[in-house]
Specification:
With 195 residues, this protein is mostly helical. It contains ten helices and two strands. A two-stranded antiparallel sheet has the order 1-2. Helix 2 packs across helix 10 and helix 9 packs across helix 10. The longest helix has 15 residues. The radius of gyration is 17 Å and the shape is globular. The relative contact order is 0.18.
Length: 195
């Protein structure tokens, strides 16, 4: 078997190997990762969490997601855009999230930018960068999965041009993977064939 190929978990189901290290990852992999996400607030949450993940393990964010949702008003753009300096200080003191000043500030700034967009505009912009699925062969091993693509670079530039922060090409590609714009479940992974 090739290194980085799909592996059988304790239940015998073949999965992407990264999903097998914790039960939290198994659930996230099987139920969420790579499934289409639509809606401005839902995409704002994913953009924000991917930014907080930068430089950290995704499991750190996944295990604090409930804390993030509580701290950031369920990532409702209008509510977060109205956060005050007192809210910012509250966030920086909240042990339930990652207390990184630059990432907190970027999330607040992004919400303020997005609050000025028309309903559905973020969804349309993000999904306009989804590559044609037929042009992407299923990855056989983790080595076949890119960290950056021309589409993620274009999405990053589009978001930055519109005023968003902490949305580099690698973060944009992680967003594309998580939100189902691309299907990077390995060819032999059971989740790849799940509708």
């Amino acid at each position: 078997m090739s290194a980085g190929a799909a592996l059988a978990g304790p239940d015998g189901v073949l999965r992407c190997p990264w999903a097998l290290s914790t039960e939290d990852y198994v659930a996230y992999h099987d139920e969420e990762w790579g499934r289409p996400v639509h809606g401005d607030d839902a995409l704002f949450e994913r953009i924000s969490l991917e930014a907080f993940q930068s430089g950290l393990s995704w499991i750190t964010i996944l295990r604090r997601r409930a804390g993030f949702r509580a701290a950031f008003a369920d990532f409702r753009i209008e509510k977060v855009a109205a956060f005050t300096d007192e809210d910012r200080e509250r966030l920086l003191a909240d042990a339930g999230i990652i207390r990184n000043r630059a990432k907190v500030d970027a999330t607040l700034a992004n919400a303020r930018v997005l609050a000025g967009w028309a309903e559905g505009e973020l969804d349309d912009l993000v999904w306009s960068h989804a590559p044609e699925p037929a042009g992407r062969p299923a990855p056989r091993t983790l080595a076949d999965v890119p960290a950056v693509t021309p589409e993620s670079t274009a999405l990053s530039k589009a978001l930055k041009r519109r005023g968003l922060r902490f949305v580099g090409p690698t973060t944009a590609y992680a967003l594309m993977q998580a939100c189902g714009l691309v299907d990077d479940h390995l060819q032999a992974c059971a989740a790849r064939s799940t509708p």
